[in-house]
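Supplementary Text 2. Reproducibility record for the structural model of the 725-residue chain.

All settings were left at their defaults, and a single model was retained for analysis rather than an ensemble. We include the record here because the model underlies the residue-level annotations in Supplementary Table 4.
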Amino acid sequence: MAVTIQDNFFDAKRFSPLVYDEKVLKYSKTIRPGTLAYDDFWDEQDDRCLFGYKPKGMHEITGEHYFHLNMNKIEMLVQGETRKRMFSPYYRELDNRLFKITLDAKKNKYGLIVGKPRRVGLSEFGALQIEYEMLFHLKNRVGICAGKQDKADGFYDKVMSLLKNVRPEYASSRLFKNDKIMKLGYIDIENKQSIECGLESEMLIRTMFVDSAGFEGASMSLVIFEEAGLFGNLIQSYRSTEPCFKEGSIQFGTPLIYGTGGEIEKGSKGYMEMWENHKSYNLEKVFIPAYEYYPGDGEVDKKTGVKGPSFFDLKTGKTNQEAALKHILEGRKLAAKSKEGITKFIQSYPIKESEIFIKSKGGILDRIKLNNQLMAIDEGLSPYDVRRGRLDWIDDEMTIKLLEKCKDNKEKAKLRIRRASKVRFVDDENGTIEKILDPINNDDMEHKPDIAACDSYDEEVDEDSKTSSDGASIVYRTYAGPSREYNLPIATLVERGDSSNDDTFYENNVKLAVYYNYKLLVEYSKIAVISYFKDVGAEKYLKERPDLRKELGPSKAKNEYGQRMTADVKILGGKLLKSEVSNNSSNIWFKSILLDLINFGDGNTDLAMSYMLCLLFKLEIFEDIAEDDVDDYDSGSNVFDAMLYYDIDSHGNVIVKSYGEDSVSDIQEFNPDIHLTDFDRYELKKKREKEKKEREEVLKTFETKRKNHFSDLIQEEIMKNIYNS
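Retained model, structure tokens:
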């Protein structure tokens, strides 16, 4: 499909009359300050800067956008020139979209989390938002925070450049500035005393690397988290900053969080958590695909020698998205010649949401398979809907009456366990539990199909805690019969306790155990959760210390419950995780788990540790690991061979290809025929024969969908952008 960007009437320069309209320019230079004509003219400009502007026959732009186009100058490459210089910014449809989204966020009191490619001008956009808030609101306070000092300094310089080069009619002097604060205004003398006058707007600058509570005590109308993917403590920084723009449930300020593909490494866990669960942070997510704004000229045709059209059209402010997409895909094929180059290229120029989370370094597991599974989820290929929610007790009438006499939640939990209260799942976007499958709760089976593990915490937790460790549990379904899914995580619980009641996580683990009717394996170094289970009478839901004598030999451990993570246990657990990722990553449909596995070995990965404990639990039941060791994942040797990339076929469709063949592991996967005893294998064999042909057809359909679904999404997005503009 060819995208035509032509409109004889539309002219983007009409949004910038103070730059391109000769009559307006001439008039603005001839009118004198202090005259009625001067006041009327600049009153009109103020009105446009505050409320927006709509040229005749064209769409309306916001006040911030008008101010940016007409009053600012930025360093840019002017069309037809070879060196950058200070010039009025061009109109871009991307900016039009972002200004309108941001204005809606300010009006309706929510924040934005943005995922973007490199070099689309988001830092300049954020700097403009800071500048505008300071110039158009008296005694206003705004904030800039970054995970690294150089990012904070760079953003500060962008704001100062705008303030320095703004039209003189909107310029303001500075009262003072240092490395933490800058204030606009001037000093006047009244009764022989110096007083601050003028705008008195403040910009606070903080680096959150050391102290996530850097803005404590300040109230701000706007807070920008610059290059949020580089924050090692993004969530903690955001939560500690919330009181600066929120009082109770009332939000009075706007947080803007920016993350650039290629920069989302250290903070990928926190950034992705906030991206995926944006509603619980009162955020809306905004993804900017690389083809939405893509400057430059097309390639020279080798046969005709004719240069292709420019991707970006100055007259319309639009990008020829299909041509830009094709150019990006061609770039990926060239970048694939370098093992590190292809990952960096995809990160820098993402065309799907999941691509901004691709990690190029670190970790000890096969991140290629894990990244591919992330992309599969993002492309809508998951057979499951991940439901977020909470668990509520179901109490009978007598239990409800008895609960009134309980002094705290712990005592209530004890009563409910004694009274055999049930548990139900309730959909809740602010909940801490995610699930894809419901409980089976069949006690007649040879073993319980669901097992679980918990990487807990023991320390007291308050709202100002600086630790980045969470309490995390995973529910894993083992073999549950020939007609049911098996060998996959089916639920997660991730949360911290709170200052009022630190038993929240422990009680939720009890409720989750009642709901799925499993036993929970706990890392024994963090045993407060074990004590809680015992105290409330839920000891039957605790997993005894696994018997790993076959793998590790006799143990001197004396603990009844839980698993001590000794050095040899960690080695075995790492081996099991590598096997699981190699053989079973296509069964992991939780983004949170996948990202933790990608980051495993690079800091706190609580879900990955819970996953390891699940596999140790599973190993005791089925002994499903062979003697052959899985090859170590080597980030420097052909690891990109299995990387998926997108290409365009001869019919113009976007298709998925691989740079090489997937590696084959010698680790033996769980097999009911081998590992189950005293099981009716006839039923299993009969069912498998019946479904063999159906399965082959399903797999063919799935692969076709995997390859073509992305094309559909891209084309849909392109058309949406074109016809909504």
